[in-house]
Amino acid sequence: MMFSFAFLTGTVLPKLIEAVPTTLSLTFISGAASLVIGVPLALAAGARSFAWRWPARGWITLIRGTPLLVQIYLLYYGFGQILPREWMRDSWASPFLRDAYWYAIVALAINESAYVATILRGAIAGVPAGEVEAGYAFGMSRWRVLRSIVGPRALRLALPALIGETILLMKSTVLASTITVFDVLGTANTLRFETFRVYEPLAGAAIVYVALVVALTWPAALLEKRLNRYLVRETPHSKGNAARSGARVETIGALR
After folding, report:
1. What is the DSSP string of 150-189?
2. How many domains does the chain have?
3. What pTM, to 2 d.p., does this model score?
4. What is the C-alpha separation between 117 and 155, in angstroms, rounded?
5. Domain range enclosing 39
6. What confidence score (pLDDT) does residue 84 get?
7. The CATH number of the domain where 251 resides is what?
């Protein structure tokens, strides 16, 4: 069959756009949950205590070393073998346990939390020691130093990597389609099976994901610029201005 732009624009793209909220909700809910899990995990992995540090690092290594698809399958297909069937059927959590969407959320959050923890641990280690010592010199408690100095500084250092991880997380949500979650790719696969057309649904999915990446990158770049607005990068132009200003000051001093 010939590639049909009419089918792509008239049938495929409208249906894929309807699935965009599912993809975005998978991204943002699991991303927020991974941040909640990743912050204490990063603090534990960077702690001085052996009892905190090595279990956290072992867990991070285990999660990062296991493919995300395996984790999704273990939760979706294997979780029911751990819990009693009566509890899964009659408990308050049964609506969630029967919905593949929430298994995908949990798997994505657990997987992403290991990467978030690694990024934050590196950012915390990158905070200048002088700033931390200055906080203690002002009489701040350890919690106050962490909240007022280390946290904001580490967030600025980690923000570019966290933005990149968010984009990778959004692209990782395509694996949710393997457990019958109808996100963008899941909808594209359904159209492919129903119409026996391959290129139009997959090309439409690629177009939608590119648009989503652009839509996420632009405000993220503005946020990064806003948070790092106090940083002034030296350019050849600014160096020339500084040199001219210095020469002007020296001339005024000589005249006086």
Report:
1. IHHHHHHHHHHHHHHHHHHHHHHGGGGGGGT--SHHHHHH
2. 1
3. 0.83
4. 12
5. 5-255
6. 64
7. 1.10.3720.10
Per-residue model confidence as pLDDT tens digits over 1-25: 688 888 989 999 999 999 999 999 9
Query: Cα–Cα distance between 143 and 141 in angstroms, integer?
Result: 5
- The CA distance from 46 to 34, in Å, is 18
**C-alpha distances out from residue 215 to 14, 101, 221, Å:** 18, 23, 11
| Closest by Cα among 29, 228, 23 to 110 | 29
Sequential DSSP letters for 97-114: HT-HHHHHHHHHHHHHHH
Q: Per-residue pLDDT tens for 128-172?
A: 888 888 888 888 888 888 888 888 888 888 988 999 999 999 999
When pLDDT is cut at 50, 70 and 90, the band that residue 96 belongs to is low
Helix axes 151-172, 199-227, angle to 10 degrees: 170
Comparing C-alpha atoms, which of 32, 37, 29, 26 is closest to residue 100?
26
Residues 58, 61, 64, 68, CA torsion sign: negative
Alpha-carbon gap, residue 221 to 153, rounded angstroms = 17
C-beta of residue 60 within 8 angstroms of C-beta of residue 120: no
Sequence-ordered strand ranges (E) for 173-252: none
> Per residue in 211-248, is it b (16+ CB within 10 Å) or e — as a string?
ebeeebeeebeeeeeeeeeeeeeeeeeeeeeeeeeeee
